[in-house]
Design a protein that fits this description.
transmembrane; CCB1; 5 helices; five-stranded antiparallel beta sheet; membrane; alpha+beta
Length: 185
Amino acid sequence: MQSAFSSTLFLTILLAIGLGFFLRAASKDRTTIVDVQSPLPPLEVLKGISFWLEDRGWKKNGGNVEEKVLIFSGNVASSAFLVIFLSCLGGVGSACLGLVLIQLYPSLSWWPLLLAAIGAPLAGIIYRIKSKREESLEVKLLSSDLSDMSILRIKAHRDELIAIQLELSESLELSSENSLLSSPI
């Protein structure tokens, strides 16, 4: 019977490690660089992207005229759903660990169940702190200002690049070699 509880303890610890890796992955920086083309003139494309970004809450943070770069910045907030979900996972996982410890060491009485009171808010707090950060978005014009076609290099969080592809690809006729919607990461 003791070996069954020991293996359950081992599995519970593995679940805690999995939760730790999930927290790490959920708050990981996913900045990506994509080259985008458009048959429209560069000024029209840059204005369209700038207005769209400002409507989404991004703020112009300067740029460099010689290098033809526009820089935007914005704050990324944590997902309220993920905070609640991870808090629940942390609480249930901690309670399970407490129950296994009670079975392995009955002399501890009910004290290991207090781990649930620690684990529940801890997972949500860790996610909220790690995922809240300031992000930047850079748009660099690779083609000349006077050309009929625009070639841009955009460096941004993967989710923003997907939003640009979904919302601006038709109006600004944007295209790129590889679609972000089909990439595995």
